[in-house]
Amino acid sequence: MARKNLSLWLVLTYFVAVFVSCSRNDSPAEATQEEPWAIVNGSALTEPELQFARNRFFGDQFVDARADQKIRDSLIASRALSQRAEKALSEEILAELDIAVRAYREERLIAAYIEANRTVEPVSAQMVAEYYQQHLAEFGEATIRRVEVLEADIASAGLTQAELSKKVFEYSKISDWSAQVLPDYMKIYEINSMATLSPKLKSVVEGTAIGSRSPLVIEEHRISVIHVVSESKIPAQPLSNVSVEIRKRLAAAQLKKEIKSLTEEALSESDVIKKF
């Protein structure tokens, strides 16, 4: 089964790369309005197909006679190979291929329709600046608080919660915590990231003024006092460094909104019968 799927997608890739404008290869040469420059087993290769291949592989570059001949030979060979493949492959694979080609065509149709019907104005410098100011944290702006924690462990203290709370409260009133000799069940440590704190302690830090100490905080087996020592701000990256990224975000958001609007409009005008 894996081998079958591999073969299917190799064929699909080949068709998409070279024959985007082609469907099944059973149309006779006389059925096309374009004068063919080659006919392969009754299937016409026309100038639009040739021009598409030129644009695909060379873009706006000049295509000399030698390169043009190679493109023509490639299209002829591809058409012959695809015809043979269509005869040799199973109906199951061909059916899957048809579904894939229809899906690809549908995607291209939608993309072309959206491009032709877009009404949203291009992203302006003002839009970029406004987005930047409203999302500074996304571009590195942060407020950093240096915090000291005086913490005692209830389980190892050998004291009741009330007795230990009293001792922690007494130590918390000392101006310089680091200069004190603390009992084994008590410690002082610093934190520079709020991410390391529990939600309860984080809330206490946020509610404590700079230079102040919090009331006693009892959480599980710990009794703590929070000292907010200082606060500093890290600025966001300069707008000039992130404007391209912002522009891409805004353009994507606009496109998403545009697609939603066009889709809703199309659905409102469609007769849809759901059988699921």
Concise synopsis of the structure shown:
This protein is α+β, with helices and mostly antiparallel strands and 276 residues long. It is 52% helix and 14% strand.
Write the layout of secondary structure elements.
Layout: H1 2-18, E1 38-40, E2 43-45, H2 47-58, H3 65-88, H4 91-117, H5 125-134, E3 142-153, H6 154-157, H7 161-172, E4 186-191, H8 199-206, E5 217-219, E6 222-234, H9 239-268
Antiparallel strand pairs: 1-2, 3-4, 3-6, 5-6
Helix pairs in contact: 1-3, 1-4, 5-9
Description:
The protein is an alpha+beta fold and about 280 residues long. The protein has 2 domains: about 1-115, no CATH class; about 140-235, Chitinase A, domain 3 (Roll), CATH 3.10.50. The chain has helices at about 1-20, 45-60, 65-90, 90-115, 125-135, 155, 160-170, 200-205, 240-270, and strands at about 40, 45, 140-155, 185-190, 215-220, 220-235. The protein has a 4-stranded antiparallel β-sheet with strand order 4-3-6-5. It has a two-stranded antiparallel ribbon with strand order 1-2. Helix 1 (about 1-20) runs antiparallel to helix 3. The longest helix is centred in the last third of the chain and has 30 residues, at about 240-270. It is elongated and about 100 Å long. It starts with a helix and ends in an 8-residue tail after the last helix. The model is unreliable at about 1-30 (pLDDT under 50).
